[in-house]
Amino acid sequence: MSATNERNVDPIQEMTRIAQGLLDLEARGFEESFRNPSLGKLVYDSEVCRISLVWGGWDPLGGNSISIYYGRLHAANEKTTMIWNSEECHCWHRCELALHFLDGQTPEYASKTMYTHSLIKQYKHSELGQSLTAKRRQPEWLAQMHVTIWQHYGKRFFELFDLRRPELWQQYQKFLREVYDIEGRIPEIEPAMDKVC
Predict the structure, then answer these.
(1) H/E segment holding residue 73
(2) What share of the chain is helix, strand, coil (3-state, %, to 5)?
C-alpha cells in the first residue's frame, strides 16, 4: 500500500478489517457494539469484556496507527473515564500491567517495566514482528501482538476484566496502587492512573 493510499484509508473500514480478519473477534465470541466514525472508534463486546480499537491516524514515519484497549462490560463507549461506585476512574486499559499482574510479578518489577513486557519484546524481535515493522504496518503489527498475548494467556487474560470476578479485579486494583506508589503519580492526570474500574 502506498503512502498516498495509506492516508486515504477509511479508519472504521480499516479497523473493521483488522477486527474481523487478524483479530478474528467474532470467532472469539465478540460482537461489534459501538461504532463512531468521528471518534475513530470501534468497540466489541463478549460475555466477559470489551475491546476498543481507536484510530491514531497517519504519520509520515510510521504510517497508519491504531490502539487497542480492554474494558469491563460497564466501560463507557465514548469516554476513557467514568463514574463507578461514586468515584471517577479509568475504564479502558492497556495490556502491559495486566500481563505483569497475571504473571505474578511484584509491583517493584512492574513499575520498572510499565509499558513493556517480555512477551511483547519477544514478539517485537520475532520474524513476524520485524516483517510488519519493516512494512510500516502498525495496525497489523499491533493486532498480531494482541493475538500473541491471547494465545499465550488464553481465557485468563480476558477473565481479568470479567465483572463476575470482582475478587480478581480487586487484587489487580491493589497491584496497580502499589505500582503507582512506587512509580509515582502525575498530579495533572485525574483521575490517577491507578483509579480503574
Answers:
(1) none
(2) 40, 20, 35
Cell (9 digits) for 51: 475491546
At 13, is the secondary structure helix, strand, or coil? helix
The 8 Å CB, 24+ separation contacts for 84-90 are 84/197, 85/197, 87/191, 87/195, 87/197, 88/190, 88/191, 88/195, 89/191, 89/195, 89/196, 89/197, 90/191, 90/193, 90/195, 90/196, 90/197
- What whole-number distance in Å separates Cα of residue 163 and Cα of residue 73? 7
Domain positions in the chain are 3-183
Across the chain, how many H-helices and E-strands are there? Answer: 9, 7
pTM: 0.93
The residue among 4 and 23 whose pLDDT is bigger is 23
- Specify whether the CB–CB gap between 23 and 143 falls below 8 A: yes
pLDDT band at 3 (very low <50, low <70, confident <90, very high): very low
